[in-house]
Amino acid sequence: MPEIQVSFIAASQDDQKSLPSVEGQNANNSTLPQSKPIQRKLNEPVFRDRLLSDKDVAARYQVEKQTIWRWARTSTTFPKPFKIEGTARWSENELDEHDRKLKEARQ
């Protein structure tokens, strides 16, 4: 069964005044142009990027978490983590790209 993802964006009270109502008007009662809905085929690929913790990355490379942090700190090629609400995460796509480049360099 195809997976469907929905994203919501929080709006401030000021932003909500300009959001369209069901009738297609904003809070000022001015008519807004109707936009076409975004359509996507169910079998169309969706860009996905899993976010991995240091524990996940360590398991991927079969090393200790300290090794992952050392690589992140000292290596010029190993992907750097980014923080989400104070929690470090690695992009699985960046790790895949790193692995691909290492493999190409060996050949």
Q: Secondary structure elements and their pairing?
A:
Blueprint: H1 13-17, E1 51-52, H2 54-61, H3 65-74, E2 82-84, E3 87-91, H4 92-106
Antiparallel strand pairs: 1-3, 2-3
Provide an overview of this structure.
This protein is α+β, with helices and mostly antiparallel strands. It has a domain at 51-106. Helix content is 36%, strand content 9%. The chain is built from four helices and three strands. The protein has a three-stranded antiparallel sheet with strand order 1-3-2.
What would a concise description of this structure say?
The chain has 107 residues and is of the alpha+beta class.
Can you tag this structure with a few keywords?
single chain, 107 residues, alpha+beta, three-stranded antiparallel beta sheet, 3 strands, 9% strand, Putative DNA-binding transcriptional regulator AlpA, DNA binding, DNA-binding
* Count of DSSP strands: 3
Q: State mean pLDDT (0 to 100 scale).
A: 78
Largest sheet: number of strands, sense, barrel closure: 3 strands, antiparallel
| Low-pLDDT regions | 18-23
What level of helicity do the residues show? 25-40%
Euclidean distance between termini CA atoms: 40 Å
Kindly provide the radius of gyration, computed on alpha-carbon positions and rounded to a whole number of angstroms: 22 Å
From the helix content, strand content and strand pairing, which structural class follows?
Answer: alpha+beta
Multimerization state: single chain
Shape verdict:
elongated
**Helix segment count?**
4
The SSE string, one letter per element, is: HEHHEEH
Instruction: Name the strands of the widest sheet in spatial order.
Output: 1-3-2
Strand content: 5-15%
